[in-house]
Every structure is written in structure tokens, then in C-alpha cells.
């Protein structure tokens, strides 16, 4: 039957149920490090993913999980009792102080180096599209980018026509090469924006134009919007004119026919692109969690952390965002910053996002969601400590602002909110070719790039097989290296065009752009 409960860290004073448990059951947890075996009789039913006390916990005492505090007891909690929102509260505040320990950083780097040594000896090969700027694409698509929401429907109609015309109505990857689909990334912005939002919109859309998964791009303007083509080109920079076309719809009596003409030109070029061999380390990986539960940090996020270590160990580029879901776990990441400068950028990343909440008169710990709580997550610290498991043991090598593109090898922290659509768009804009997305409650959401949905538990993987690509609960039954290697193989298949993710198959691909200012 395997484990029925787990103590994640030897310092923990709570354990997590790995399946539904009944009151009166005696739960025995094996010894860890220098901590002896412990047994406890449950005083109440404990749902999978939820916590129970391993000993009596006093009012005012910190609740330790993952080896860190996730909150404070607001009443006496007996051994074997359910530990959740009814008897603990957050310890977070709108401010915090942080320190950099160079010795801890060195030890963390040494541990990561040792764990990834074998992976560096045998880096997997993938078949990808090599672009002129040196980056690689996992897909070869035409992207239609509207500069303003007013032309969204025109873009959607053009994409629908182009897929029927050039792809026979099928949008799917190919193992050899050629045009794999035409997609548009609609949004409501590009005009009537203030407070820096217009610049933010232009930056994200420019990033999408330059994305290596787009073999060709049609940029569509209304003509009178603030984010018009001359303005947009300030953010776009140089482009290959054979692969990036522009259309101002107000300039043509029949904008649909003009759009089709430009798409035919793009399709003629993109259809010639072929896949070539490259090391897996050339792929840019994004990491995300949504609809999380109490199993997330134990299975799916922990598994993604193993992938992060593997990819960075091979010399690859990996990014972690959702800054609010680092609150309460930020010191864990700071302890792995490669140097003092990166640490200071990480501190600024955290404090700047807390400042964003303060400017809008909101508290920084208004999280987790109702679904998170139903799945066993109690406080934001609880959620954050599970969330950052996706970063594995990899050293933090760089910090990026929202809208910047990733260039640095290693683990990068990317500025962005926890919101699923905004953060997946953020990682796509930064250059992610593929995103690993863990979920415990289930979500159909997909980014413009292949989005691998990884279930935290068996029931979800079985119930929502139309959404889920990989069942990380296998970690509870199989060797962790075997499960990691299985997911690595799946990633290779996806980026090489041999497999299609469920979000691609379902057509669930969309964007959302971060908004901070006033709409006119």
C-alpha cells in the first residue's frame, strides 16, 4: 500500500496525509536524520493533503513544515489533531529583513553540483528549430499579434482561415519540420492605458513577436491606438522582414484580404523550416503551479524541482515566477543565490512586489485561495514553501524584471504575480519553450507554448485525464530517479514534436498582460 502519511523534514511538527485517514488510526512515521520514529493516534479524520499534529502544540507556537514556519497556533492543538485554518494563522507581514550567508550558498552549490554530476555526462538530444538569434524553438508556428483589443476578432478570423488553408484544420507538431499551426494572442489592451501599462503591453507583445516558437509573425494594428506600429517598434527593435509582417487595418479597404496575403507570404517561408538536433540544455523551461493542494510540495512541485536541477545541471535555462508565492519561503531561495549581487536583486524583487500590494492598500498575505485551502494548504507560507520546491536545489543565477527576456543559464527568478494566465504569459514572453505546470485541484489553462500539466495526486490524474499529461504521485510508489527520467523523456518528446500536450490538443492557449495603472 506504500506510505499513508509523510513528515517532509526532520524538524517538522506536522505530517501530511497521503490518503484519506480515519480517526483512531495509529500512524507511525519512520526515523529521519537524527529524529526518532514517531507514532500518533489520529483524533479526527484527515483528508488527503491535510496536516495533523505529531505532538501537542501550544498556543503561540510556530508550526513547522518543510523545516520552516508556516504559521502560529492560535489555540492548544493536541497530538493527532487536524492542523489547518481553524487553529493556526499566518506569521507574514508587509515587511521583512533578509540576510545573505555566503557559506550556506557555497554548501548549496556543492550539493547541487554533486546531485547533477551524472546528468552532465549524458545530456539528452532533442530535435528543434534553430533560429538566427541563436535560440531554439520547440514549435514552428505563425503567431498573429494584435496591438490593440479592437482588432481581436479580425485576428481570430485570420487565424481560423489560415489553419484551414495551410494546415488542413489541424494544429499539431511535426517531427521533421514545417508549419505547425497559426495562433493569435488576443488581449483587451493597447489603448486607454496609464501608469506604465501601455509600455508594459508593448514590451510583452514585442517579446511574443521575438519568441523562437514563432517561425513567422503578423502584427495587426487598428491604426489610431496608442500602441500603434511606430510606437511599438521602439520596443520591438530589429526583425527579419521575411518573417515579421505588419498590417494597419484602417489603411486597407479590405483588411481581411490583406491579412490573408501577408499570411500566405509568411507560410511560404515558415513551411521550409526543419527540425535539427540540439542538446536538451538549449531549451528554456518555465515552472508554474496552479490549483495547488497539500500534495503539491510533496509530489508535483518536488518532481519539477528534480527537473529544474537536471536542466540547470546540464547548463540549461530555467525560470521560476509567482513572486507572491515566494513570500514566506524567500529566504530559502536567497540562501542559494550565487553571489551577494544576486541576493540583493532577489531582496528587491520580493520587497518591490510587497510594495505593489501596499500601493493598492492590500495585505501581501491574502492567499491561499478557497480551492487551495480545501486541498490542505493553510497559509501563504504553507503554499509558498510548497511552491518553491519547483526550484529544487539549483543556485539562483539571475533575477529578471517583468517583460525582460531570459539570457542567463541556471535558475532565474522572474518578476510576476501568482495569477495563472498572467504568469504563464510572463514566462512565455521571457522565452520559455515549454512550461511545467503542477496542479492538485486541476486546471485546463494553457500558455502559448506547450504546457505540461502535472497532477499531484492519482485521483486527479484519473478523473481529468483530458487535462493531465503526467501523474507525479508516482513518486509515492516508484524510485524518484525513475519518475524524474520518465518526465525528462516526456519533455524531450514534446519539444521534439513527437508528442502534443493536452493544452495543445484541446486548443487551450491564451495570454493575459499584467495591469497596474488606470484605464481611461
Which key features would you list for this structure?
single chain, 520 residues, alpha/beta, 7-stranded parallel beta sheet, 14 helices, globular
What does it look like?
This protein is α/β, with parallel strands linked by helices and 520 residues long. It is 31% helix and 19% strand. The strands form six sheets. It has a seven-stranded parallel β-sheet with strand order 19-20-18-17-21-22-23, sandwiched between helices. It has a four-stranded antiparallel β-sheet with strand order 1-2-5-8, with no helix packed on it. A hairpin with a 2-residue loop joins strand 6 and strand 7. The longest helix has 20 residues, at 102-121.
Layout of strands and helices, then pairs:
Elements: E1 5-6, E2 14-17, E3 26-29, E4 38-41, E5 51-53, E6 62-65, E7 68-73, E8 82-83, E9 88-89, H1 102-121, E10 125-130, E11 136-137, E12 141-146, H2 152-167, E13 182-184, H3 197-209, E14 214-221, H4 229-236, E15 244-248, H5 255-270, E16 276-279, E17 284-289, H6 300-313, E18 317-320, H7 330-334, H8 340-359, H9 370-374, H10 380-387, E19 396-400, E20 410-414, H11 420-430, E21 434-439, E22 451-455, H12 458-463, E23 470-471, H13 480-495, H14 502-506
Parallel strand pairs: 12-13, 12-14, 14-15, 17-18, 17-21, 18-20, 19-20, 21-22, 22-23
Antiparallel strand pairs: 1-2, 2-5, 3-4, 5-8, 6-7, 7-9, 10-11, 10-16
Helix pairs in contact: 1-6, 2-5, 3-4, 3-11, 6-13
